[in-house]
Write a structure and sequence with these properties.
It contains 8 helices and 14 strands. It has 312 residues and is α/β, with parallel strands linked by helices.
Amino acid sequence: MSRIRTAVIGVGRQGRWHAEKLAALENSNLVAVADIDREKCRAVASDLDVEAVGDFHDLIGEVDAVSIATPTLTHFDIASTFLKYGIHVLVEKPVTATVDEVRDLVELADGKNVILQVGHLERFNPVLMALTPHVREPQFIESHLIAPYKPRGLDVSVVLDLMIHDIDLIHSFVRSPVSNVDAIGRSILSDNVDIANARIRFENGCVANVTSSRVSFKAEHTLRIFQSNAYFSVDLYNKTSKIYRKKNEGSIETPEDISFDKWSCTASDALMAQSEAFLDSVVGGPPPLVNGRIAMEALETAAAIGDMIDMS
């Protein structure tokens, strides 16, 4: 089996990890890494024994698939260039800075019949993969994604930096159009919104309350999902889930009428799983969990939240 010629664009912290995964996969031939920071690029290239490229355009014709881990505002220009040449693209979330941009990327990918996958990494969290088949018609969802302040991702608000993860997950559970959004957010340590809360209503009646912050001294990522006869409490960082269910259809008289299960998943390499899935899609395997159209749905909701915050 011929190996897929790959490259990574952007070799900051996240991009280095992408490069390491693609260098390790048997069906990947990591050809090069590219970054405008020549010194950083050469260092990563030397570590992985690949070529260092300053201009990503030089990779056209040299690769079959690329992983893009540059700042969000550059995603459209880079991804569209590769898609125009029929090169498969995995791009970090958020897919683009605007909905119009991702719509154009989707049209390009469809027209060239190539893969456009978006790096919503939590889709590969093992506790969520185990839980997803059990979530049916949720009525209320509450999520908290809280992270320490870091000098990365500050080119966009916390909505696009962090909350977009949970927006994508919530859409995957609810599977209904958004009917209304209410949101508030504030800038604390950066020039963009650093803490935000949104209430998302869906046409099927489900309501989601979503909070994200990048001004905490601790890291926390939790989901609580309520549906008929069941409640799920999920800790995405520690990869545990608590499930409470009604034992019978009748009313709850005592705690014994409720069953309780606790799941715990072993640590796994979500980024490796994402990279493997991308290359599998490239060679005709299952389609991406998050393609351009799915990512566009999450970005549309994120944009509505951002607009509401701007008006608050």
